Amino acid sequence: MATKKRFKLKSDAEKKLKIIGIIIGIIIVLFIFYRSNINDLKKIGYSEKASKNILLKFKKKEIIHLGKNKTLNRAFESSDYIDKNFTSYSKIKYQNHKNIIKNINKLLKIGYSNEEISLILSRGNDKDVNEFTKRKKVRYLEEFFSVSYSKLRNYDRYISYMNNSREDEETSVLYVNLDMDKENYKDAKKIEDFSYTMLVNKHHKLEKDFVPKDLKTVSTDYAREKGIKANINAISQAKKMIDDAKKDDKNIIINSAYRSYEDQEDIVNTYRELYGDSYIEKYVLLPGYSEHQTGLGIDFGSTDSKIFIQSDEYKWMEENCYKYGFIHRFKSNYEEITGVKNESWHYRYVGKKAAKYIYENDITLEEYYIKFIEK
Ligand SMILES: [Zn+2]
User: What residues form DSSP beta bridges with 216?
Assistant: First the structure.
């Protein structure tokens, strides 16, 4: 009897073991299946976290069909994911913003299309977009923000500039980005760094102690007097230009170049005493706002003619200076943007690439700066 009972006990234990074994087997198979699904998703570019949530939400089939998509990846990583916005996530262009999915949800709720949301996201940072979601649906969205250098945070200024000036959308974006809706010299942006394409004007100022890089004295073979300083590269290109002009019988000379903040202050004071405030306003830049302080602004003259604009040297420079990295900075057709009257003698070293573009497209340094540098 005892043996029989023992035998029965043994077979019960075996049965239990078998069942446990089968269960473990199933778990292992399921786990392998689960991991291989995750690996399928990771292979096309989804993160571990996103892949797990994709499986959890039964979206693998759609995701495999759509392929790699950064916005979707982020959506599935985020706790802000909303299932009904799935198609929109797949169509909205990704930006690396912390709260991109949360902001997309808000913008969809306001009623923007996927294309409009892609534009909105591309024209500001996370904070700008978040601020923008607090507005009701805005007008002229596409008109303003399809301009590549437009900024979300300037929206109100664009609208008010357009209404006041009757300029078109693109011009309004450009002029507002240039702070032309602000008074001259008011709340000017401080310039941090030296570069050949730096912008110094009535809205971009240099600090009193700003001293540019690589100043060097110009030899009197090329300058009207001793002690004129300028940027080392600007000088070497100016020398080449002056030498080449000479081969064409044009006699160009450097009249003035680097001026410190204090030098500009002296000039302003002298002219103010002589001609009064309105003259200063019209013709002289206040200290900190002159690009002579960068060492990149150079005033050229002709040794053959007193009035530069009437000289052959001026005509030669108009056609050739860009080849040496210089631009005619203040032309009469640029006055509205530069805020400075035509100065036939004042040239600015910006480097050859920028100079060529500015010359060929006949634009101001301001426009070049907004379109290619500030971004
Ligand atoms: Zn000048």
Answer: 230
**59: CA distance to ligand 1 center in Å?**
65
> Rounded CA gap, 94 and 236, in Å?
45
Q: Is residue 10 part of a domain?
A: no
147 CB burial (10 A radius; 0-12, 13-18, 19+): buried
Element (H, E) at 307: none
Q: What residues pack around ion ligand 1 (CB closer than 5 A)? A: 299, 346
Q: What is the DSSP letter of 370?
A: I
C-alpha triplet 178, 181, 185: angle, nearest 5°: 75
pLDDT per residue as tens digits for the range 261-304: 999 999 999 999 999 999 998 889 999 999 999 999 999 999 98
343 is catalytic: yes
Residue 131 shares a structural domain with residue 211: no
Which of 120, 160, 309 is CA-nearest to residue 318?
Answer: 309
Exposure string for 228-253, b = 16+ CB within 10 A, e = fewer: bbbbebbbebbbebbeebeeeebbbb
Count structural domains, the chain: 3
Are the CB atoms for 231 and 213 separated by under 8 Å? yes
User: What sign results for the dihedral spanned by CA atoms 97, 102, 105, 107?
Assistant: negative
Distance 287 CA to ligand 1 centre (A): 13
Write out pLDDT tens, residues 306-339.
Answer: 899 999 999 999 999 999 999 999 999 999 999 9
Distance 290 CA to ligand 1 centre (A): 8
Any domain includes 183: no
Domain that holds residue 157: 79-177
Same domain? For 241 and 360 the reply is yes
Give percent above pLDDT 70 in the chain. Answer: 98
